[in-house]
Structures are given as structure tokens and as C-alpha cells.
Amino acid sequence: MNAKLDSAAARAITQSLKLKRGENFLLVTDKQKMEIAEALARWAKKAGAETTTYLMTETLRPIEAPTRLFKEMASRAQAVAYLLESRIQEKPFRGYMVGLGDKNARVCMMPGITVDMMIRLVNIDFAAMSAFTKTVIRALKDAPDIRITNADGTDIAFSVKGRAWRNGNGDISRKGKHGNLPAGEGYTCPVEETFTGRVVIRLIDDKLGKGVLRFKAGKLVQWSGKGVEEVIKNIGNDPTGFMIGEFGVGTNSGARICSNMLEAEKALGTVHFAIGDSYGIGRNKSKHHYDGLVDKATIFAKGRFLARDGKFLL
């Protein structure tokens, strides 16, 4: 047994999902994530939850929509953990899983999670990270004049006035909630019609390489970059996939920029913007949601700089 992984799994089950005796727990995994799944299942059993493991075989992938039987299982679960290797074609299925967290379950999304990420980023002090995230959210909440720039050429301005914020601090213990592990972000959705400018990204949805996104009044109107082109191809002609859906700020001091967006978007000094679904915060509802990472961000809001070149001034 990997003792460090076991400790991280304990935190996920007892401090994040806070599983209770008698609850139905659905664990969705593939063979690549089996070591993590087994550690989570071990702690779910200790918590007294009734655990059902769903193994996604390669022969069924990519999966774009749940089967009727899967829907029935998922609808009866009080808690769900999603571990599948991240694949762009499976965004609609991931969207379905997130939707479970808006209804009758609480859902922990861990697409592309690795043993290393569990050990480094889940076995941490959640309280300290949450406190810093709250500080960032207070500084940005209701700001009518946020401007994000960086040395790569990002220059985007927008308002978040009247929009709710969420603290992605790993607390997924309440019904009707979803979140990530590893955690560490504060996020909202920009007021769509105010969102105009240029975003230069280092990574989009687990695709390395720079890309450029140009927005006008909340809509993506021009783009370039290999990873971006792949995302656009996957969206097809669905207009909901081209609308701004999220603005997030990374707040996990242990997270690093890497090819896995699950970790990269949590890194200090980064912000991210997503096109597609706004998770009920903004007006856009979509089966798509693709995050683009901006590195070494300068954040200006409410007449002052909150961060310069990736360094917080709070």
C-alpha cells in the first residue's frame, strides 16, 4: 500500500466528500486510475458508505453520453467521484457528471488525476488554501472594471458586478454541489456583454502550446493555435460553445503548470477563462466547457493591482 496515497484518499473521502454511513457512493474510473480508485474505495468502506465502482473500458471510449443503466445508478447516488483519463471527446459526458452535482448528488470531478497529484495536492491544509481563496474573492467581488494582462499579449477587460463567486476549496460535502480535487481556485462568470479583448493562453483543455482567443461582447470571434483548433473542431456548430463561461484565479501554492489542466488552472500566478457552460453563474448553458490558461497574470480591479506578473499583492 502507498501510505501517502492512502493519506490523500482519506482526506478526499473524510474531509472533502465527507461520506457518511449508509450513503450510496458511485466511483467512476478506468484502468489507468485503478490504484487511486482502490484507495478511495478503501476509505469509503471505512466510512460505512455503500460503494459501487463503474469501470470504463477502452472499448467503450470515447463516451459522449451516459447509458440508461448508468443514469439509473447515478440518480441513486448521494456522492460521486469521477476519475477518468481526460479526453476532449468526452466533454459532454463530463458535463452530465457535473450536472449531477446541481441536482441530487455531490460530485467530485478528478479528470486526469494522477497518484503524484493526489499526494502533492490533495494531502494538504485545505483550511489555509480556502482562507487565501476567500481573500482573492473579496478583492474581486462585484468589480466592474477587471483587466487581465500579461507579457504574452493578453489584454481583456470585463465586469463581474452582480455575479456570484465560488470558492473551489475542496469542500464537496453538501448536496447539490460539485468541485475538483485537487482544489484551489476562486471562480465566477464575467458579465457576458462586457467581455471584450484578447486572451493569449499557454494551455487549453490539456493541450500544450500557445493559442490566441479574441472575444467581442462575450463571444469568441477569432482564434488560433493547434490546441484551440482541436477544441473548436469538437464544438462544431454549437453556438453555446463559443460563449464565455468562466473566469478563475488559481490559489493552490503546490500546483504547477503542466499538461493537465486539472492541476495547471490551480497554480498561483495563473488565471483561466473557459468557453461554454457557466455552471449556473452566468447566462450560458452548454454541454461544452474548455479552460484556457493565462500564465504570469497581472490583475487590475477596483482601481488597484491585485497581482503583477503572477505575484499577488494582497
Can you put this structure into words, describing what you see?
With 314 residues, this protein is α+β, with helices and mostly antiparallel strands. It has two domains: 119 residues, 3-Layer(aba) Sandwich (Thermophilic metalloprotease-like); 188 residues, no CATH class. Helices cover 26% and strands 30% of the residues. Strands 5, 6, 7, 9, 10, 11, 12, 13, 14, 15, 16, 17 and 18 form a 13-stranded antiparallel sheet that branches. A five-stranded parallel sheet has the order 2-1-3-4-8, sandwiched between helices. Strand 10 and strand 11 form a beta hairpin.
Total number of strands = 18
> What kind of sheet is the major sheet?
13 strands, antiparallel
Point out poorly predicted stretches.
none
What's the assembly state of these chains? single chain
Radius of gyration, in Å, reads 19 Å
Instruction: Write down the overall mean pLDDT.
Output: 94
Question: Structural class, from secondary structure content?
Answer: alpha+beta
Strand/helix succession: HEHEHEHEHHEEEEEEEEHEHEEEEE
Distance between the termini: 41 Å
Q: Strand fraction band?
A: 25-35%
Our count of helices gives: 8
Note the overall shape: globular
Helix content: 25-40%
Domain tally: 2
